[in-house]
Amino acid sequence: MTTERPLRAVAINCTLKGVDAASGKPNSSTEKMLRLFMAALAEQGVVTAPVIRAVDHDIKPGITSDEGPGDAWPAIRKAVLDAQILIIGTPIWLGQPSSVCKRVLERLNAFLGETDDSGRLVSYGRVAGVAVVGNEDGAHHVTAELYQGLADVGFTIPPNAAAYWVGEAMGHVDFKDLDQTPDKVVETVGLAARNIVHLSRLLASNGYPPDGQPAKFRDG
């Protein structure tokens, strides 16, 4: 009898905001959405790590896995590769993912030149999801940009793997300020978590074929 290895998930928060000076707690709607996401994954039996808030780390500009002294990315990269699930959360600014999010994608770009012992990208077999918040249009556009970037660098994306909340255009109420999380957001996060976990388990038992080899599938 074999014991199934538990899946692990890591989330990267690409907010532009820091810690609230009065409370010392993260002052970010993206953080709230990601914690909701990670809780839904935990309900599916996934081992979750604390959310990585990118602005707390000195992530150097560049497209390699290590941009030299002081670069915080190598440790974040290790956390990503130690997990089977990656969730990226970003706010919407000017209809776009945050600049921090784009830097994270640029650093993930290094995976395109890194392979495992079987010739596959080191990111293969890992599943990605997306969380988006904002007070303007753009949730679908931002999701599409992240989907394309994550797929390009080797992550697999299941159906309905994104959840978002968008407030009134030019409004003053943020997701973190809501007294109650909308039911539709909770439902969508739950659906995304189930699909992400399902695909992760499939890939754990039937991974992508080594370079140059035909695909093989195990029954059951």
TrEMBL record:
Domain of life assignment: Bacteria
Organism from which the protein derives: Tistrella bauzanensis
Residue stretches making up the NADPH-dependent FMN reductase-like domain: 22-162
Pfam families: FMN_red
Protein name (database record): NADPH-dependent FMN reductase-like domain-containing protein
Annotated Gene3D superfamilies: 3.40.50.360
